[in-house]
Amino acid sequence: MHADLSHDTRRVVCVLATRDGGDLLRRQLESMAEQTVSLDELVVLDDGSSAATRQVIAAAADRLPVRVVAASTPGVPGDALLARIGQNFAAALRHARIGASDVVLFADQDDVWLPDRIERQVAQVVRNDALAVASDARLIDGSGDPLPGLLSDLYPRPDRFADRTRDAQLHAVIRTPVATGAAMAVSGALVRTAPSVPTGWLHDRWYSLCAAAAGALVLDDGPVIEYRLHVDQAVGATGAGRGAAARRLAAWLRAPGNAGRRIADLHRLRAIAPLDVSRALTYRRLFAAVAAPAKWGAR
């Protein structure tokens, strides 16, 4: 059902990382199969799941173009979890067949896609000539019942983002994560040209920074998924999920030597940034952004 989007050669690829998803994964895969526009490819990177979860994935092959890739070294616990998630998604991208004109969606194993997710996000990429689109999400609990508010209520976005200069947009994204991978779409061109996801970064954080550096990040206020909040999620907005994980990542970045590593990673964005933004990505300004964000404007 691609005709309405006028992208005859534009493929839609999804990458999904799994680890013992069980029934929640089954519902997620069902929602992927119920889209108004079909996926062309679904690459599942499985990180050592049980046989039951592997059976759930295999059963989805009747309705989805799914291909399973095993993680190279399954199972890394504790503080290495965030780094592992980012690298798992990066590995899934390497296994996907992605052309420059294609659209790539990220997915978590425990959410539910709204029926028009693909249609809406592909249209956003095409209409805005965007490298990345960060959409919003409705909230549900572990049983699938609605929760009040939206994901953006938990993680407010910068005001009037689209009206800011490219330099100011990048600064805002460095200061504040604006993209949740489960509700994010990126262009194949970004995947093919952006620096690879550095160790220690989440994939969504990195690609949102890459798109902002290139001046082609769109923040979409419309929800495209139901984002599940439950105590068992590895990374999420619960106290045991995104909050704790984000605190671990922040502590890692602030540890001696790690801020320097983060600055070095951000400096690589100069490779895809237009001249006005590239000039702002000096080590001096990046140090100010990481150590004291309010000083970004100082030359």
Automatic annotation (TrEMBL):
Q: Which SUPFAM superfamilies match?
A: Nucleotide-diphospho-sugar transferases (SSF53448)
Specify the enzyme's EC class, one word.
transferase
Under the GO molecular function aspect, what terms does this record hold? glycosyltransferase activity
Q: Which residues form the Glycosyltransferase 2-like domain?
A: 18-148
Q: Which UniProt keywords apply?
A: Glycosyltransferase, Transferase
Keyword Glycosyltransferase on entry: yes
EC number(s) from the headed UniProt entry: 2.4.-.-
The protein's superkingdom reads Bacteria
Q: Which residues cross the membrane?
A: none
For this protein, the record's PANTHER family field holds: GLYCOSYLTRANSFERASE, GLYCOSYLTRANSFERASE 2-LIKE DOMAIN-CONTAINING PROTEIN
Q: What is the protein named?
A: Glycosyltransferase
